[in-house]
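Order emerges. For instance:

***
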Amino acid sequence: MRSTCGSSTSSDGAHSDDGTVTSPLKTDAHFRLLVESVEDYAIFLLDAQGNVATWNNGARRIKGYEAHEIVGRHFSVFYPPEDIASGKPQEELEAAALTGRMEDEGWRVRKDATRFWANVVVTALHDANGDLIGFAKVTRDMTDRLRLAELQHARQLSAHVQAALEDERTSIARELHDDLGQQLASLKMQIAALDLERDAAGFARHSLSDTQGIQSQIDTVIASVRRIASGLRPPVLDDLGLYAAIEWLANDFRLRYGLAVALDTEGEEIGLGADSSTSVFRLVQEALSNVVRHAEASAVRIAIQRAKDGYTLTIEDNGRGANLDTPPAENAFGLLGMGERVRQLGGVIAFHSSPGEGFRITVDLPLSGPA
């Protein structure tokens, strides 16, 4: 006897609440049709060993293989040679099998050997007994989004360069006007005063102390010119190397800002070219400038450790710190500029901070130069 209210089921179909019966075979066919027709995502199955078992239109469009060309082949064919050499494909399967799901973003390779930036999700599949029977793999081509992000990054860097140039010009103009300009004006007044002191015959006369004062003023002007020039490009960097240049920089910040700067260097200074040394020097210079402008710190420690295959640079202060989870201000380009310098050298930079806990920058640089 069949109930006249609610839904019912039978062996050959499923009843919905409105009385509609859906055939399981029809449902499976519709699902397969849905997966096969999706073109924005590559959706396919792998067996337990990682061989491709199914293929949809999205996979064909994104990766370039027809189904008969790829089914049965190992999915590592989609990875760059360096990832294959490092064992990344197998590691991803093992991670998915262990945790049930694995997500990754990175470069993948099409049939024609071109690369695209992909978001990949691998899900482990198990049978009723819990045994691993394969994997479901979903890949999305994120190249356009990556290019958009790179364009935005380039715009930010361009703005950073322009801002840095303007700051540098403003600083030089201030130095020339407030320091060098005033000293030259004072020197001119001293010379004019000497010219007024003449004897009865009309000859200029002056005392030894007057000329000594002028010489002292000239020495001060020369020192200011050297200081301004050193700020643009310290001669010690070319003459004595990076370690000596950073020591000079630390002394300069001690004298000018009363900042306690400790410098620790370990290992010999080898393996860095002129361009790399300049970039590291500018990196330290920008970090110290940020400390003076924003950190409200009294002490900074700079450490350089020479390892077998590179350098580790650490710069940390005892200032007010920052919340790195909040978006930076639109005109805050300091950290962005540091990151770009390190990226061009093929290195890795990390920032560590929290409010009230100071700020630490860690940089790992390879000896091989830019990547």
